[in-house]
Design brief:
Length: 343
Amino acid sequence: MEYRQLGGSGFKVPVLSLGTAGFGGRGDFFRGFGEVEVKQASRLVDICLEAGLNMFDSADVYSSGAAEEILGQAIRGRRDQVIISTKATFTVGPGPNDVGSSRYALLRACDAALKRLGTDYIDLFQLHGFDATTPVEETLRTLDDLVRAGKIRYIGCSNFSGWHLMKSLAISDRNGWVRHVANQAYYSLLGRDYEWELMPLGLDQKVSAIVWSPLGWGRLTGKIRRGQPLPESGRLRNQATVDGGPPIADEHLYKVMDALDEVAQQTGKTVPQIAINWLSQRPTVASVIVGARTEEQLRQNIGAVGWKLSSEQIAKLDEASAVTLAYPYWHQRGFAKRNPPPV
């Protein structure tokens, strides 16, 4: 398993990490990801560690905390072998302070996550989204205090726009506080918006991408084809889960799938393996989060690394997945000498 530097830090993470959104399956939304309980989760952790994949990503809202609890039990007795990444900011209760990135909310969220995970520190603690109702200074000072207290080691963000992240980095720099080293972002062959602003920002400011939903919200499993019904199982059969994901036009999906099928024939690899491998070769990407309901799925996903697509194959996938950029990015790309695309 390849390890990569996480942003501007000295910390290294595996190029693949295991997501735990499918641990627990509590509620309509997360049931679409899976219903993995402790015994099965422990087995998935076994397989990951055997392959050198030792980073596990969770969040307090995944199955209302059950995902963190299950992960904590699955890694019991081997905490020193794993990297734990988790997130907070989204709503976790009915109270007015049960949401957001205020000092009150983050201190409670961190302590609750530590308890559920059965550990006394979190390797990477991320803001699950931007909280525009809390001063950024309050949020970052709290995260800095948590790092100084030894409860978390590194910080990151998720689902931020470019100005959210840049403002946060500037405030950290001005005050000498801990800095975001990771940006957990949606990025796939079906959704390349990350490349427009967040990728150049990541290159310039040394903030690595940790990619969520690399298979386009379950659409690049290789089971969806033009004119064929959806697979019998999976998140696309769960309307609550579908509604919570990125919208993707059918024709764009089929165009990307045609290119993936062609590359699959050339390489002998599966469609998901090619989609994940493509991501692993993109600028700023430190780790790609993969999910798995079964051992077979996990082994297939682990097989996405350890080899490389050719430049010709990457170009084919790039062309098939390209879309018209939003303004001002299409305008900037017209002046490539002044605004070169990230490489």
